[in-house]
Amino acid sequence: MENEKNQQELMFKLSMYEQQIKQIQENMEMVEQNIIELSTLNLGLDDLKGKKDSEILSPVGRGIFVKSKLIDENLIVDVGSKKFVTKSIDEAKDVIKNQLKKLEEIRDSLNFSLEKINEEIGQFLSGVEKDSKSLKDN
């Protein structure tokens, strides 16, 4: 009976660790996707430099574009809370670089959390192994 209870506790703890790891991995995937999108946007902004009065494709919605003429190289940037400001391409790239830096810090933090959980699992399993061995010896 005691052994069955210990096994249930073991399974419960391992399940909790598994859930924590899964959540961290999902968060890491979102962060990585945002890093890719911002990096792509950053590169795309370079393509706008020196293109005033050129024809470009402007997104209207998901996968829908319209041909348009670039009349100004200044950008309208959403800075949050439905507030928009005018920024040059270089200023917008600075905003993106700051966002990328924050995302990379979040990614590092998530990696650190994952390492800590793996250490905890190792210590936990080591303790279980010792307990199991001492029960067999008795």
- Average pLDDT taken over every residue: 89
CATH topology grouping: Helix Hairpins
* CATH architecture annotation: Orthogonal Bundle
Strand order of the largest sheet: 1-2
Radius of gyration (Å): 26 Å
Structural class comes to alpha+beta
Helices, by number, come to 2
Write a short abstract of this structure.
The chain has helices at residues 2-48, 89-137, and strands at 55-61, 64-69, 75-80, 83-87. With 138 residues, it is an alpha+beta fold.
Commentary on this structure:
The chain has 138 residues and is an alpha+beta fold. The protein has a single domain, classed as Helix Hairpins (Orthogonal Bundle), CATH 1.10.287. Helix content is 70%, strand content 17%. The protein contains 2 helices and 4 strands. It has helices at 2-48, 89-137, and strands spanning 55-61, 64-69, 75-80, 83-87. A two-stranded antiparallel sheet has the order 1-2. Strands 3-4 form a two-stranded antiparallel ribbon. A hairpin with a 2-residue loop joins strand 1 (55-61) and strand 2 (64-69). The longest helix is centred in the last third of the chain and has 49 residues, at 89-137. The model has no long low-confidence stretch (mean pLDDT 89).
